[in-house]
What we know:
This protein is 42% helix and 19% strand. With 134 residues, the chain is an alpha+beta fold. Bound molecules: adenosine-5'-triphosphate. Adenosine-5'-triphosphate is lined by residues 52, 57, 61, 91, 109-110, 112, 115-116, 118.
Amino acid sequence: TQRTLVxxxxxxxxxxxxxxxxxxxxxxxxxxxxxxxxxxxxAQADAHYxxxxxxxxxxxxxxxxxxxxxxxxxxxxxxxxxxVRAINGATDGRKAAPGTIRGDLSLSNRENLVHGSDSPESxxxxxxxxxxxx
Length: 134
Ligand code: ATP
């Protein structure tokens, strides 16, 4: 079994889609190891997105992820990292396949509702960052 860090970004909370999105992960068979509503500051955003901090798209991304409450979760299951990314869909909601969370529910490259760790190594780093007591 494997664990992965999932964020329900502020657009998911604002739009009232947390339940809809969580249902998809639960229906797939993933289990919840941690789940918490958080409001993060710029330092936490920078730590989470360390690999993107120097990118052109990062300042507005930081604005967005600190713009309101988000829900952070650790989901668990067989190949959870890859399974969550498949359910999330491609980064850009306009291009993501129908049937995925982003493909069905997002029309934006930035406000794309969810984050999922991109590898088991990223998952370990991100879980330690978000849930140090887990
Ligand atoms: P995530 O890491 O959030 O699961 P991802 O792995 O599909 O998404 P990354 O390339 O890691 O995408 O980018 C992280 C986040 O940065 C994206 O989810 C999106 O919110 C934002 N982002 C990425 N590229 C762009 C871009 N060109 N313009 C605006 N925002 C972007």
